[in-house]
What does this fold into?
Amino acid sequence: MALGGMNTPAAFTGTEVYQRSFNPGEYLRAFYTLSNSQGQPNTFLMQNLRSLWKMFSLEGLRGETLIDVGCGPTIYQLLSACEHFQEIIALDYTDQNRRELEKWLKKEAGAFNWRPVVEYVCELEGDKEKWAEKEEKLRQKVRQVLKCDVTKANPTDPVSLPPADCVVSTLCLEAACKDLATFRSALRNVGTLLKPGGHLVMVTVLRETYYAFNNMVFSCLHLEKNVVEEAVEGAGFDVMFSEVQPCLLGDGSADCEAVLSLVARRRAPISG
It folds into this structure.
C-alpha cells in the first residue's frame, strides 16, 4: 500500500508502509468518533454499526468461535457479534494495530474511548445502559490477538487455528489486496479459517481508491458489488444476504461511493 501526496497513491500501498507509517491512534480519532470536531454525526460509522447489528441478527449466525480478519485497532465490528459467539480471535497484519487493540482489552492508560460507540450499539439492541456489561463481555471473549496475512494460504501461518463458525472482515480486504486476482485469492485463504457451513460476514467499501488521515494516504482496491459477490461465490461460498448503501463520507477522507454488507455461507466440499 504505497503513498503519494494527498491524492491517490502512485502505487498500491504495501504492507511495509502500513507497518512503518500507519498510526492507529490517529486512525481511530479520524474515523471512529460518533461525531466530528464540528459536531456532525459520523453517518458512515453509524450505518456500518446498524448493518453489523442486522447481519448478526440473521438466523444461523451463532456458534462457538468467531475470527475477525483484519481487525485493525478497532472493536466496533465485534459489538453485535459478541452476543452470539463464545470465543473471539482477532487477527491483523500490523503490529501497532494489535498493540492498540490490546490496550483497550487490558484497560491500559491511553486506550481509545469506545463508550459512545458501544452505547450506540446497545441502544440498537434495546438498552443503552448495558454498555459497561457489553464492554466486559467483549474483553472476556477476545481470547487471542494474532498476526495475519490474507495473502498467505494459511493467513495465520505459522499458527494453525481450528476452523471457526464465523469469520467477520470489515474494511480490510479492499485495503490489503492490490488487484482482483489477489482479492479473489485472499477470499479463498480466509475461507480456510471457516468450517463448512460456517458464515462469512463482510463490510466492504465500493468504488474507493484511497482513504486518508493524518496527512497519509492509503490505497484501496476499486470494487463493485457484483465483483465482490462473484469473488465470494468463487471462493466456495453461497451469498445469503447482500445490501448496498450509499457512502456518506463528504470530507475528502476517502472517495468511496457505497458500502456493501454481505453474509455468505461456506459450501461443504463435494465428496467423491
About this structure: The radius of gyration is 17 Å. Residues 43-55 form the longest helix (13 residues).
